[in-house]
UniProtKB/TrEMBL annotation:
It comes from Candidatus Defluviicoccus seviourii. Residues 61-317 form the Aminotransferase class I/classII large domain. Keywords: Cobalamin biosynthesis, Lyase, Pyridoxal phosphate. This is threonine-phosphate decarboxylase. Decarboxylates L-threonine-O-3-phosphate to yield (R)-1-amino-2-propanol O-2-phosphate, the precursor for the linkage between the nucleotide loop and the corrin ring in cobalamin. It is an enzyme of class 4 (lyase). The gene is cobC. PROSITE patterns: AA_TRANSFER_CLASS_1. Pathway: Cofactor biosynthesis; adenosylcobalamin biosynthesis.
Length: 343
């Protein structure tokens, strides 16, 4: 039985291909916040593939990452196999069952992982609504999917009262919001990802940035060789490539702007996002999702917010043109619905 495409996670191209009968290779995947421009991965010596990753490679990446993220030092940085690995581990090692607040709506894996580890999860729409029993607070900043941003000062103020886990998976395009530099002083745990901005989600590399004692605890929990040698090597090159990083930031900002214009011209209302994805509302988002999918374009729907669609960035002119053509060819019934709502 094929999965209901409306309920798919981002990036579920194989399931969409099955549901809509379109080969995987024919899809334009706009369902994630992964940059369409991957960091140009260098060829690696056979040795890197052949040997277990050594401590030197880990130490090199810790130093490079501390500098890129502005962490207090390499002992505050732990490479992990994608941010998701830390999202899974943290609830299990951060003490006995407790009340945990999560600023929502957000990336659903946080609530799932804390609940699965036996904690009592409270999702709150505003920081003002955090129940007083909650010692721990989870924030995605900037947020996925709506791009809500707390300033670094606001996050640090929250860390005066809570242990704050800040998922900064999308902060590469907004480095000014990061609190990574404060992790040794405040009860702050920052998560960073190589998957999104560097377009390397398949590499499975991310970081936890926190006080050295917690980093040591997490390193112990994940065990040896949790991050592959190729990931350590590629991460060490990508994070020091200042020219590529600056060019990527500029090009993502241009693409996000262009996407906003295209969506607005098609009658959607852009309500938020970051330079890695845009969130739009539509009176018939479900109809539009299906129409785009029948044209081989996958975007991200939200079952609990049925008027929302999240769009990743098209990677080139051809992808923009394909999206534009599909939006223009929207069936009259959907357009009619839109007009009825407009008036
Ligand atoms: C907010 C957020 N954090 C973390 C992740 C997982 O990222 P990674 O590929 O680093 O595991 C995602 C993936 O979509 C995400 O949206």
């Amino acid at each position: 039985m094929p999965a209901d495409p409306w309920r798919l996670h981002g990036g579920a191209i194989a399931a969409a291909a099955h549901s809509f009968g379109i080969p995987v290779s024919d899809w334009l995947d706009l369902s994630t916040g992964i940059s369409p421009h991957s960091y140009p991965v260098p060829p690696l010596p056979l040795q890197t593939w052949h040997c277990l990753p050594d401590a030197g490679a880990t130490a090199r990446l810790q130093a490079v990452a501390a500098s890129y993220y502005g962490a207090p030092g390499p002992t505050c940085v732990l490479p992990v196999a994608g941010t998701q690995a830390a999202i899974q581990w943290l609830p299990r090692i951060l003490g006995p069952a407790q009340d945990v607040a999560i600023l929502a709506p957000t990336y659903a894996e946080h609530a799932r992982a804390w609940a699965a580890a036996g904690h009592r999860v409270h999702t709150v729409a505003r920081v003002e609504d955090i129940p007083s029993a909650c010692r721990t607070l989870v924030i995605v900043n900037p947020n996925n999917p709506d791009g809500r941003v707390l300033t670094a000062a606001q996050v640090l103020a929250l860390a005066e009262r809570h242990c704050v886990v800040v998922d900064e998976a999308f902060a590469d395009v907004m480095p000014e919001v990061s609190v990574a530099g404060h992790c040794d002083r405040a009860p702050l745990i920052v998560l960073r990802s190589i998957g999104k901005f560097f377009g390397l989600a398949g590499l499975r590399l991310g970081f936890v940035i926190a006080a050295p004692a917690l980093i040591a605890q997490l390193a112990e929990a994940q065990g040896p060789w949790a991050v592959s040698g190729p990931a350590l090597a590629i991460g060490s090159e990508a994070l020091v490539d200042a020219g590529w990083i600056a060019a990527a930031r500029a090009s993502l900002a241009r693409a996000a702007h262009r996407l906003d214009a295209l969506l607005a011209a098609a009658g959607l209302t852009v309500i938020g996002g970051t330079d890695l994805f845009r969130l739009a509302t539509d009176a018939d988002a479900r109809g539009l999702f299906d129409h785009l999918a029948r044209n081989g374009i996958l975007v991200r729907p939200f079952t609990d917010q049925p008027q929302w669609l999240r769009f990743g960035l098209p990677g080139d002119d051809a992808a923009f043109a394909r999206l534009e053509a599909a939006l223009r060819s929207r069936p009259a019934v959907t357009l009619g619905l839109l007009r009825a709502v407009d008036t």
